[in-house]
Amino acid sequence: MRLLPGRAALRVLGGDRLGLLGACLLAVFLFLGVFGPHLPLGDPTAIGAGERLGAPTAQFLFGNDELGRDYLPRVVEGIGATFLLSSIAVVITAIIGTFLGIAAGYLGGWVDGVIARCADVLFAFPALLFGLLASAVIGPGNISAIVVISTATLPLFIRVIRSVSLTVAEREFVVSSVIAGASTLRVMGVHILPNILGAAIIQLTYALSIGMLIESGLSFLGLGVQPPNASLGSLLRLGSVYLTVAPWLVLIPGVALALAIASVNLLGDAIRDGLEPLRGRPLT
Hints:
The chain has ten helices and no strands. It has helices spanning 6-15, 17-35, 71-107, 109-124, 127-137, 142-169, 172-179, 184-220, 232-240, 248-273. The longest helix has 37 residues, at 71-107.
């Protein structure tokens, strides 16, 4: 199993208008998340910069919040926080989930049984319930959000990688390497890992969208990013109090969150369509 060549992959993405739209939106969000603090948008924590609960104007494009802070830099800060926490958590999930999934699929036996049962146990815990538990033990904040996102996305990641690894482990080149005396780690790292990267990348994109949703939910409940810092979820929570008098405080971060999740999912669909394994093509 292998990825399409770079040019072919770009050609597939270019032919998928929704995928291209998702990639462009994701690029915009990533740019705002990474370079937002360095853009001349104003101080997101400056109280009294404008009228309290002021409507959007030419000076304050997204209006002002309940403390008169400029809402535009706060939304940009929220995008950065949501992306950063979700990305860190999902990268941790990808590393651990890929290793465990390959081990379960290739080794089988009691190793597969232990890993599968542990994944089932984690899968049984709702993310928000585990968030309450993590906040009680660790305390609310960024670390709790990362732990909860990683724990919530890990079981499905393990299942997907295990399923693909089971198929790859039966291929002739893997059997030949075992007969030739290759070690278990070499077979897993050299022969199986490169051939499950396509599925891992696709699952990574979907896990990122789930991670953003979980992070926003935790921050909405006050278990994630803590004031004065902002995430999209915390902005929704604070804006919901003034929904009837300042609906833009909910509408703007809500639309930003929806577009961010949609962009990741659209890009994930495009990548899935551009990879041979998930289109039923022969393994090579």
